[in-house]
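User: Hi! I'm working on a homework problem where we have to compare a predicted structure to a textbook description. Could you give me the structure for the chain below?
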Amino acid sequence: MPASTHRVAAVLRRARRLAALAAGYLALPLLNAVSPLLALPAITAAYSGQAFAAIAIGQSLGAAAGVVVELGWSLSGTQRVARQSPRNRARSFALSLVTKLMAAVPFTTAASIVAFALAREHAEIAALVAVATSLGTLSAGWIYLGMMKPQTFLVAEAIPRAVIISLAALGLHFGAPLLLYPLALLCSSLLGPALGCLVLGVRSRDFVAVGFRRCLIVIRSQLHAVTTGVFSSMYIALGVTVATLGSPQATVLYGSVDRLQRMAQQVLAASNTFFKGWVGRAVDPSTRVARARTAIAAAAVVGALAGIVFAALAPIAAAVLFSGTVTVPPLAAVIAGASLWIITLSMAMGGVMLVTLNRVAAVARSAIVGAVVGVPLIYAGAVLGGGTGGLAGQLAAEFAVLSVQAVAVFRGLRELNRTNSGRESCASSTSPTR
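Assistant: Happy to help. Predicted structure tokens:
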């Protein structure tokens, strides 16, 4: 067979592999984004907007607690496990589960209590949704993505979750009690890590080897990543709660647009999760930085296009998903679209580039700034402008976060260039002359 034919066959094989990988990365966030919403049309049709408001409050507080429970493993761990052996990945997952469960006991309990207190109707549903949402962070997804195996994520977590929620939606459509929805969420949240242990080959001794002191050391080492999550949750996951405190009438609009925005964000995260694994696999630090630059450029373009599409389609999507009970004004859609673009760029700037530069502390600082800017502005915006005003406060928070990250990236790259230049001059000065 001619050499040219071999080359063409090799190119075709590589193209097929890339296409399969891309399909997995796109299907994963689509399924993850859509599956929690499969039951919402049935819920809003049978139980009205107040049931959705209770669920939105529960998801908001559960997601906020989940950020702490997750302990930043997906931020700092994904690139690290990309270079680990299968046995070490299994140990890492066992360690992550134990430390997450330690954090889950106080924070998940607190989230459920606050959700119960804030919900005007269906308080018990809000509390259970908060528990289920919080425990969803026990997922092994961060390891699958570090391994660059989105298909495994699909089979082990995303598809089972979609099936469970679909069955719950079917039951609600035929008159099942609303309690079925949080129970389905809880079942899917616990099934994911159980299947993860099987897929990754976690052994019982991997859990036994995890001592209390070691867990405390790991939690302490994750403080920057945890800080990022905690302060991010104040203006992201807790956005619905803050807007509700500002104006109860803002809950439905802010909650519905925020839910649509998070759906779109999960889809856009496909490229970010791919880049985390791709960047992390590179052994040479300069190669990782170059790949991280590519991630930022891709995020800028993809995020801008997505923001425009979101602004155009959000009112239509809200009417369909929420059975006509929610009307999204054009201004609210445009504000949310702009936020989506900034969020996409921030995911690459902080989650990829700053982690590559070993500047996770800068990501934490940006989250603190976002909370300081976002919480009062979301509250004030809701008081003055309802749901649309709250979304404007969220946009201001996301812009503040991106600004801090951009400055940190610029300083990190400048310091890296100085270090490399110093090494080159040192090497040239010590090299023998002819």
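For your comparison, note the following. Residues 24-221 form one domain. The chain is about 85% helix and 0% strand. Good luck with the assignment!
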